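Predict structure. Chain length: 359.
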Amino acid sequence: MLNEHLIKWLSRGVADKSAGSTARPSIAIATDIGLVRKENQDRVACMRFNPRVGQGQPFFVVALSDGMGGMKDGGQCAVRTISTFFSSLTRYRNVSLVERLQNAANEANSNVYAYSSGYGGATLSAVLISLDGSAITLNVGDSRIYAESGISKKTLERLTVDDSLEEMVGGHGRGLLQFIGMGEGIRSHVKYIAPEFDKLLITSDGVHFINHKTLEDVFVNASEPVQIVSRLSALARWSGGPDNASLAVLSIGKVEELLRDSDSESLDVWDSFSELNLFWVRQEVYVDPPSAVSERLENKVVDQPELILDKAPEDVPPITKKNTKPKRSKPRVSKKTQEKLQIVIEMDANMESGDDSSR
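Prediction complete.
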């Protein structure tokens, strides 16, 4: 299953901080353990999905998840949030973009809840961009999404609202009213990004605790995404590094070009340390002539596709013994047995139309 594969990959051991650069200059992501925490419970990753012809449209998604400190297994909750979210997006590709995001967030919530029984959780902030240029945000918790606005005077505008007591109901404190892993009743915030926005910033609270004016000045005065993530990561450390600091910077227009330029049927996932590439492999099934089947049965060799017989065909003639050196006659495979083999082969071939998410 894709989900289990991603969980294992996102759980691998990595360095305490990353440089921010990726194989795609138009996208930069970084994470830093900070100066106080003993474990980095943030996860930030991107996925580009190019399905087979007729299996949906390509899309790109970047997601950031911040495991909730003080609760159970925050790091694993963040891992499961992103892995389930990504794998679900590949399966719900035949519904609208909004439904796709909501369904994926709901599955991530269910998966984390099943893992932690409500004693652990994580935030989730994500941006999905489709081949036609549509861009949508999803937010649960207090990780944030910003966009650069303005022409002559550029500013940094926040697109999301925290699910905190302060911002949701006007109370006090940073306690979250909802998060991934809370169980029933979750309502993710999903909305389209206005056409005038292009350059985006996604942050965990280890970055956006910085004064907003300072955050804005660094963002609008850096020309390249990798410069932005590098400077903001350093600034978070210079400001005391009280929490894990993770962020992503990207351009909607550049991601559109990335989707148009890709002609391979693949699923690519990358974080701030390395990249995982999965390709769709079409299984080719060959029907051997009876003579080749007989030869494999005689030598007890089973090739792909697997043809496993519990016993030899009933109408295979016995080996005749003569006064001369024994000679084995070639066994025949009856029409009835050939039909059985054909059924096994057809069943293997039908596996090709199974769920793409398991490949």
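Summary: Residues 97-116 form the longest helix (20 residues).
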